[in-house]
Amino acid sequence: MISVDEALARVLAATPPLPVRQVALDAALGCVLAQPAYTAQPLPPFDQSGVDGYAVRHADLATVPVRLPLGTTVAAAAQTQRPHLAPGTAVRILTGGWLPDGADTVVRQELTHREDGCIVVREAVAPGADVRRCGEEMPSGAIIAPAGTPVTPGLVGALALAGVREVTVYARPRIVVLVTGDEVVAHGAPLAPGQIPDANGPLLAAYLGAWGCPPLRIEHVPDRQEAVRDALARAFAAADLVLTTGGVSVGDYDFIPAVAEQLGATPLLWKVAQKPGMPLYVARCGQALLFGLPGNPASVLVNLHVYVRASLDRMCGLDPARRWRWARAPHTLRREAQKTFWLRARIVYADDGVLRVEPLHGQASHMLGNLAQADALVRVPGLHEAAPVEIVRWLAFTPC
């Protein structure tokens, strides 16, 4: 067996970034920028009002209160030419409206009242008040987001406002999931004696979908060597990432490693000194990276969250190390003699405001019930590693 750190290193060394492509902005959500995104126009694109009020020349407000004849209204709408403000007058302007030529200040509506076609400015305002200047946030051609930035809803809005129509991103990975086991029945199908409903397929589909990488397909594969061979061959030809559940240990029907290598796969690792999830198998066949995950659902989740997630990050141009966080360990902590233990836990604030780990019941590899409360997967070093553990590393279960 190899250590968790060695397993992660081998996985990442065998995972190059995916090719880049240019996509329309509305298709980029959830991708990662492969090149910087530049503003196509200044932000804001022109001098404009930040409030509903009146555009004026500040020189006309030398004394207050002051009456100014009221001209036209400038709304936040398309205009063929910039409006003009005559000296000694005011123009009604709405939020986002184009600041008239000659105006340098906006007086908030709350500081005025109307009288006989004029406005009365009751209070003094500073020069340039409530004016958004063209390009004050960013000039045209500025970097609005560097390479390596995930495209979030907020970034989509910012890019749209900056006039960006297309971005260059890393391709989304093509993923195929194979669920093995004669005893495993597709979710919702009737069960015969000795059969169990499939939890791994729905778990993988939900996990990958939440992280923006839904699988191309999920297949249920019987425990026959030829069936496993055919399914793996199809998967290797179609996918960048192949995930299998079950069939990677030392049982009579654990065909995944041998069949993968018959098909030309190069093994990268098999068995990691960890609990749960020890019999992890990873190999590469052509463009496809294979993760042979154990069959127990908690083992699937651990390996998915630690190793598959790191590989997906690397494929998509992200730094996997960015996901690791730190928290204070509980006073009593389960530790294995020669293995890393993966603890499902809640992260809470201690009385002094420091994050701390709160272990949950039901840590066995076949148990998933505590995931309703778990928000963290905590790495607990084995007893062979270091002295007493006071601070532990953890991964959030929520996408980030």
Automatic annotation (TrEMBL):
GO molecular function, one term: molybdopterin molybdotransferase activity
Alphabetical GO biological process terms: Mo-molybdopterin cofactor biosynthetic process
MoaB/Mog domain segment(s): 176-314
Keyword Metal-binding included in the entry's annotation: yes
EC number: 2.10.1.1
Reactions it catalyzes: adenylyl-molybdopterin + molybdate = Mo-molybdopterin + AMP + H(+)
Matching SMART domains: MoCF_biosynth
Requisite cofactors: Mg(2+)
Superkingdom as given in the UniProt entry: Bacteria
Enzyme class: transferase
Pathway(s) of this molecule: Cofactor biosynthesis; molybdopterin biosynthesis
A Gene Ontology term for the protein's cellular component: cytosol
Swiss-Prot/TrEMBL keywords: Magnesium, Metal-binding, Molybdenum, Molybdenum cofactor biosynthesis, Transferase
InterPro entries: MoaB/Mog-like_dom_sf (IPR036425), MoaB/Mog_dom (IPR001453), MoeA-like (IPR038987), MoeA_C_domain_IV (IPR005111), MoeA_C_domain_IV_sf (IPR036688), MoeA_linker/N (IPR005110), MoeA_linker/N_sf (IPR036135)
Keyword Magnesium: yes
Protein's job: Catalyzes the insertion of molybdate into adenylated molybdopterin with the concomitant release of AMP.
Protein family according to the UniProt entry: Belongs to the MoeA family.
Database matches in NCBIfam families: Glp_gephyrin, molyb_syn
Protein name, entry field: Molybdopterin molybdenumtransferase
Taxonomic source organism: Fontimonas thermophila
